[in-house]
Amino acid sequence: MHSAALDAVRQGHPEVRKRLLGAFAITVLFMVVEVVGGLLANSLALLADAGHMLTDAGALALALLVAWFNARQVGNAAQQARSERREAWAAIVNGAVLLVVCAAIISEAVARMGTPEPVQTGFMLLVASAGLVVNIAAALMLKPVVGGNLNARGAYVHVLGDLLGSVGTIVAALLIRQFGWLSADPIASLLVSALVLRAAITLMRDAWRVLR
């Protein structure tokens, strides 16, 4: 990202806020769809993805708040440094929330591994496919503004986690539908959680370097 664009991102440029708001709106709307779909299909993978979308909504709301606040504090180098620290703290909060959510999902997935439960694969596949489209749209909205901005990057990592969750859920639904392998549902949740955990830890590490 060239320097002018990077400065605009850091200063809470309206384009950044507009993209964050768009991603927030579609994330909240589809989160409700996934909760209902997960309950109706009895799919842990769908509910796990809905849980990630809930944290996404919080991450995007936090990112919007920080971007708005930074836009009102544009000025000298000291104010710029404070803006960067706020972005770093927002990224750490986002990463910490992801760690907690992933721990809860992993715990439930391990429990289900011992006693797999039947799922409605047709409905699961439909909702997961729609979720993939929504997450791709949200990721495309955020991608242009993540370079050099930990605040936007934190929200972007959440969305990518959901995108991976949708892919994992689709694969699990196909495996269950084709082979009757019920363990594919909790396994998909474990794999996605592992990927999201890695991204969250990396994000928090980078944010901590800014704060040191």
CATH topology, which one?
Answer: Alpha-lytic protease prodomain-like
Cα-to-Cα separation, first versus last residue: 24 Å
Name given to the CATH architecture: Up-down Bundle
Helix content: over 70%
- The arrangement of helices and strands along the chain is HHHHHHH
Give the averaged pLDDT, no decimals.
Answer: 77
- Low-confidence spans: 1-12
Strand content of the residues, in percent? under 5%
Q: Which properties best describe this structure?
A:
single chain; mainly alpha; Alpha-lytic protease prodomain-like; disordered N terminus
Written overview of the protein:
The structure is a single chain. This protein is mainly α. The chain has one domain (3-211): Cation efflux protein transmembrane domain (Alpha-lytic protease prodomain-like, Up-down Bundle). Helices cover 86% and strands 0% of the residues. The protein has helices at residues 3-10, 14-41, 44-71, 77-114, 121-142, 150-179, 184-211. α6 packs antiparallel against α7. The protein is elongated. The model is unreliable at 1-12 (pLDDT under 50).
